Every structure is written in C-alpha cells, then in structure tokens.
Amino acid sequence: MATPVPLQFAAPKRGMPPKHFADLSEDARIEALAELGLPKFRADQIARHYYVRHEADPRTMTDLPAAAREEVAEKLFPQLMQPLRHLTTDDGETRKTLWRLHDATLLESVLMRYPGRATLCVSSQAGCGMNCPFCATGQGGLDRNLSTGEIVDQVRNAAATMAAEGKRLSNVVFMGMGEPLANYKRVVSAVRQITAPGPHGFGISQRGVTVSTVGLAPAIRRLADEELSVRLAVSLHTPDDELRDTLVPVNNRWPVAEVLDAARYYADKSGRRVSIEYALIRDKNDQPWRADMLGKKLHKALGPKVHVNVIPLNPTPGSEWDASPKERQDEFVRRVIAQGVPCTVRDTKGSEIAAACGQLKADEQQSA
C-alpha cells in the first residue's frame, strides 16, 4: 500500500461552513440526534429524506416529531448555498449555476443533459491554487476548500432537479472549480456518499463518477488504494515537461513521467481506463510532433488502459489563449490514434454561457 504524502498548498482565505448532516459519519449523526433527545433510527430516516428524496429541510420531514424539526434543521441542516444566477443553453439542456456560500464565497456547478443520461460537473474548491494560465479559475486563485457538505449538496440539488423532471442524475464529474485531490479527504468522503446505495448515499454507480486532477502523483496513488472504481481523469495538456512546467505549474514538482506512472498504478488497481484530458490551444500544444509524442508516451506507460479526450479550449475574454482550428484538431486526433491510443474530441456544452470553470464567477465579481 502506498504511503500517503502530505500535500502543501496555499492556505485558503476563508473559514469553513457550519457542520452539515453530510459532513458527519453515521456515528456522529446518531450522537448529534441523541443530544436532541432523538433515537438513533432517526439518522437513517433523515438520510432517506436527504439522499433518496433529495430533501434538505427537516421542517418538511413530516415523519419526524413536529417539536424536533426546527432543532434538527438548526443543528444539522444549515443552509450551505443559495443560487445567485442560473444560465441555460443547448435548448435548456445545459444549466450553469452560480452559488453564493455562507461566507459570500462564489461557487459554480453545471448540469448537462444528454440522451439517456444527465451529468453534473461539481466543484471541489472555491477557486483553485494550481495557477494554470489558460484557466479562468486558476487565474482567480484559491478562496478555500469546500466542505464535504458543500460538495454533496451540489449533487443533491442536481438530483432534485432531475427527479422533478421524472429523470435521474446518472453521472458526476469532479471537473468544476478547484483541484479535487488538493481537497482529498472531503472529496473522497463525497464520492463515497455519491455512490453509496440509499439511504446512505445517492446510489450513483462508481463507474459514473470521474475524479479529475492536474497530476498530484502521490494523491493519485493514495486514491488508487481507496479501492474505488471511479474513473481518473488526468489533465495533462502536453506530453513534454518543458511546456507543461508553464501550462501546469505543479509539473515542476511531479513531472510527466511520474504522473503517468501514478496513473498506471491507478489503472491497475481500479481496473478502469484512465482518461487523459488535453485542452488543445492554438500554437501552444497543438503541433503534430506533440501529438506523436503524446501517443507514444501514453502507449508505453498505460497500454490499452488509456483514452485521450481532446478538449477544444473555451477561451476567456481578453485571453491570449485560443482554441486550435478544426483542421489542426482533427490532425492531432488522427496522429494520436495512429500511435495506438484511442482519442476523441469531447462534446463541449455551454460555451455561450461561460461554462468554462471560473468564467461566471469572474463575470459576477466584475459586475459587482
């Protein structure tokens, strides 16, 4: 078993929210309810409301004693977030929400409906400390980590939205604001609640959950040892250390070879293919020789246990970073495939509603 390595990053600027039901272990929930004079079976009863019926207000939980509902609400269900803005596109199929948290921190999530499935892109931090220059969130810096409850409640809100439409939330991707593995314990706790069957979780298949990272190699290995079968997505963006040191500054600490070695460890432990995310940027990382190098390195490091997602860059206003032309994108994909590595272009949604991470938050701050 790999030894966890402490990860040191810039300290978040703001305080964590009050404890929420989703932040607590089962024993802690029972203890908290006992302090209110309620028996332990109420913990499962409340969990069924929250995870199965997607209710977050004990005042509406009519099978709880009427005299206890207000106290349960105050002690276990503080309001974690309020919707500030909703933006929709794709004929209403894609909805981006800007949330205001208890301390006025801003947070984004995106609900995307596809034929036969619905995917929520969740945030794991308010802002991000990874400082990738082409990412709006990275340029805004890190406000703070999100609590487990704040992560889980993004999922509950989306699940409630889909249930109201007579449908089901089927997929959750940790590809929103923040670096998930820099908020490791809370993200893993959230994943377990997302995938646990009711009444202890939302019952979403682990195969429908993706955890993304810019390449925190020790944390990738640690995640592999959790014995989960969620998909790992590595935001590589270039196969060479020289450019990646600039595009993904954490590469100075964990270079490409070390990241791919950790990714192979994850693939072997989980039995899942690793997804390599590659934001294609005009004249930066879209050269044919980089496509060849990417295919060769991935084939050598991961063999059949890898798939490349090419992502057309969603540029931020005024940025020097722009998407590659369609013909260059197609040639890049062709050359990666020629090296024996599956490669597809991601079906991007929401570009006209600032769906790239951090854009809506930046817009709100500029207009405030």
UniProtKB/TrEMBL annotation:
Chief subcellular site? cytoplasm
**One of this protein's Pfam families, by short name?**
Radical_SAM
Q: Which reaction does it catalyse?
A: adenosine(2503) in 23S rRNA + 2 reduced [2Fe-2S]-[ferredoxin] + 2 S-adenosyl-L-methionine = 2-methyladenosine(2503) in 23S rRNA + 5'-deoxyadenosine + L-methionine + 2 oxidized [2Fe-2S]-[ferredoxin] + S-adenosyl-L-homocysteine; adenosine(37) in tRNA + 2 reduced [2Fe-2S]-[ferredoxin] + 2 S-adenosyl-L-methionine = 2-methyladenosine(37) in tRNA + 5'-deoxyadenosine + L-methionine + 2 oxidized [2Fe-2S]-[ferredoxin] + S-adenosyl-L-homocysteine
Molecular function terms, GO-annotated: 4 iron, 4 sulfur cluster binding; metal ion binding; rRNA (adenine(2503)-C2-)-methyltransferase activity; rRNA binding; tRNA (adenine(37)-C2)-methyltransferase activity; tRNA binding
- Requisite cofactors: [4Fe-4S] cluster
Instruction: Describe the function of this protein.
Output: Specifically methylates position 2 of adenine 2503 in 23S rRNA and position 2 of adenine 37 in tRNAs.
Task: Kindly give any further remark recorded in the entry.
Answer: Reaction proceeds by a ping-pong mechanism involving intermediate methylation of a conserved cysteine residue.
Can you name this protein? Probable dual-specificity RNA methyltransferase RlmN
Q: Which organism is it from?
A: Corynebacterium frankenforstense DSM 45800
Encoding gene (name): rlmN
